[in-house]
Design a protein that fits this description.
The chain is an alpha+beta fold and about 100 residues long. It is built from 4 helices and 2 strands; from the N terminus they run αααββα. It is about 60% helix and about 15% strand. The chain starts with a helix and ends with a helix.
Length: about 100
């Protein structure tokens, strides 16, 4: 798969994983696991980038004596998900065009 396309998909997957509630790294990976495999190093690289792009915010809280980072989606992150849904309609249209002779 094209690396740029995959990167965009992973960004939106992570944003979708925290859309309904704030979450932390291990839980994000666990929630996504039925759909996509992702290493911790990949996740944290993307989380840092999404934070720098103001698509999420980070809050640190203590949990069982350890500090844990909780990620919260911003309005910009929610807009990215909505933009992706619109883009996906176009991608599916292109896919149908490419595969029309395969049927």
């Amino acid at each position: 798969m094209d690396i740029q396309l995959k990167r965009g998909l992973l960004d939106v997957c992570i944003l979708a994983a925290i859309k309904s509630e704030d979450s932390y790294g291990y839980k994000i990976i666990k929630d996504m696991k039925p759909y996509i495999e992702m290493s911790e190093s990949t996740l944290y690289t993307i989380l840092k980038r999404l934070e720098s792009e103001d698509m999420l915010t980070v809050q640190t809280a203590e949990h069982c004596g350890r500090l844990r980072k909780y990620y919260h989606i911003t309005d910009a992150g929610l807009r990215r998900i909505e933009n992706f849904k619109d883009e996906w309609k176009e991608i599916m249209s292109i896919y149908r065009f490419i595969t029309k002779e395969d049927k």
